[in-house]
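Trying the structure run again after the queue cleared.
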Amino acid sequence: MTIAYTPSTKKSAGFQMKNFKLCLIDSFASHKFKHTPYYLIALLTINMLLVASVSIGLLYNIGFERQKNCLVDLVEAQSIMIDIIAHQVFC
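Done. C-alpha cells:
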C-alpha cells in the first residue's frame, strides 16, 4: 500500500512540522532550561580539576623517581670509574 503524495498531504505535513517545531521551542524555553544548573557546572569543573591535578601529580612523581634512579646509577658508575683510575695511578 502506497500513499499518494499530493499537495494537501504536503500542506498537512508542513503544518505538523511547524507544530512540532513550536512544541520544541516551547519546551526549550521552559523553566527547566531557563535556569542553568550552576551547581552541576561547578561540580563538573571541580571534578575535572581534581582528576587533572591527581593525574599530573602522579605522572610528576613517576618521572621524578625515574630521573632520580637514573642519576643515582650515573653517580655510582662514575664513582666506580674514579675508584678504578685511582687504583691504577697510585698502585
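The radius of gyration is 36 Å. Worth checking whether this holds up in the mutant runs.
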